[in-house]
Every structure is written in structure tokens, then in C-alpha cells.
């Protein structure tokens, strides 16, 4: 394995371990469980980088590229739920908790659908080039929007917080 695969493996193991420690210390706490899900999602992305980079068959590369692009959907969605729960823990209804799953599910379906987000993976001169499909911009906007929305929630919580009283 090369240095990039080793670093991906290390980052995946660290995130997996961190997620497990947080979950083990309080899995009944919703925030702990959601943070563990974020860490597990990041670990799954790190672990899926390795077989994508190592694949020599274009069909295998395409499969791993789809898995590689599914992980960020999980990362941003779980990160959003963590932040949303952190800020609105007592005030949120079940419907408002489930509503963000609609765009996430639609993006997941589009990512899995043939030729929509990822058309193919081209191998040339030892490198891989992902050819994106027509709805890749929707995927990209979804990822950016959920990260931005999450950071707005975090910023709101930060600026509304006060010191220890």
C-alpha cells in the first residue's frame, strides 16, 4: 500500500475508534449516538478510498466510486442531524427531524442510478478519471448545502451561548 492508502486507513481507524469510544460512553444519549454516526460515516469514506484507488478493473472502479460518493451523503446528513439535535434538542418535532432525509434519500437514489451522478471511471496512465453524469451538480449542491446549513446551526449556537453562570 502507498502512503495515501496508509493515511486513509489510519484516518478510518481513528474515526472508527473515536466513534466507538463516544458511543460506548453514552449510546443512550442522542448526541453521542449521532456523533458516533458521523465518525462511522467518515470512517466508511476513508475505508472506501483504498479499494477505489487499488482497483484495476474499470467495472470494479465504478462500483467503488459509487460507494465513495455515497459516503459523503451519509457524512453530511449525520453531521446535519448532530448539529440540528444539538441546537434544537427539546424544541424539534419528529417531522422536522425526518424532513432532511428526503433530499438525502433522493441524492442517494440518484447516486446509485446508472449514469446519473457517475457515468464511468476511465483508467489511463495509472490514474483514474471519474466521468460525471448529468445530475452531478445536484449531488454537489446537496453536499455543500448540508455542510453550510450545519455550520450555520453551529454558528447560531455559538453566538447565542453565554459563559458559565
Would you kindly provide a written description of the structure presented here, covering whatever features stand out?
- The protein is mostly helical and 165 residues long.
- Helix content is 73%, strand content 8%.
- It has 6 helices and 2 strands; from the N terminus they run αααααββα.
- It has helices at 3-26, 30-54, 58-87, 94-98, 101-112, 136-160, and strands at 118-124, 127-132.
- A two-stranded antiparallel ribbon has the order 1-2.
- A hairpin with a 2-residue loop joins strand 1 (118-124) and strand 2.
- The longest helix is centred in the middle third of the chain and has 30 residues, at 58-87.
- The mean pLDDT is 89.
Give the tags:
single chain; 165 residues; mainly alpha; two-stranded antiparallel ribbon; 6 helices; 2 strands; 8% strand; globular
Brief account:
With 165 residues, the chain is mainly alpha-helical. It is built from 6 helices and 2 strands.
Question: pLDDT under 50 segments (min length 5)?
Answer: none
| Estimated helix fraction | over 70%
* Strands in their spatial order, largest beta sheet: 1-2
How much β-strand is present in the residues?
5-15%
Q: Structural class, from helix and strand content?
A: mainly alpha
Order of helices and strands: HHHHHEEH
Computed Rg: 18 Å
Number of helices: 6
Q: Largest sheet, described in full?
A: 2 strands, antiparallel
What characteristic shape results from the CA principal axes?
globular
**First CA to last CA: what distance?**
52 Å
Q: What's the rounded overall pLDDT mean?
A: 89
* Strand segment tally: 2
Amino acid at each position: 500500500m502507498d502512503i495515501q492508502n496508509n493515511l486513509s486507513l489510519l484516518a478510518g481507524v481513528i474515526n472508527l475508534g473515536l466513534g466507538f469510544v463516544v458511543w460506548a460512553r453514552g449510546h443512550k444519549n442522542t448526541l453521542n449516538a449521532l456523533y458516533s454516526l458521523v465518525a462511522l460515516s467518515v470512517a466508511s469514506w476513508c475505508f472506501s478510498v483504498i479499494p477505489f484507488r487499488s482497483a484495476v478493473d474499470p467495472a470494479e472502479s465504478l462500483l467503488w466510486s459509487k460507494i465513495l460518493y455515497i459516503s459523503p451523503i451519509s457524512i453530511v446528513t449525520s453531521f446535519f442531524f448532530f448539529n440540528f439535535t444539538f441546537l434544537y434538542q427539546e424544541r424539534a418535532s419528529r417531522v422536522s427531524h425526518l424532513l432532511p432525509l428526503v433530499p438525502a434519500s433522493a441524492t442517494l437514489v440518484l447516486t446509485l442510478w446508472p449514469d446519473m451522478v457517475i457515468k464511468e471511471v476511465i483508467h489511463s496512465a495509472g490514474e483514474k478519471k471519474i466521468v460525471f453524469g448529468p445530475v452531478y451538480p445536484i449531488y454537489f449542491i446537496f453536499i455543500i448545502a448540508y455542510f453550510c446549513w450545519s455550520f450555520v446551526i453551529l454558528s447560531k449556537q455559538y453566538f447565542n451561548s453565554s459563559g458559565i453562570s
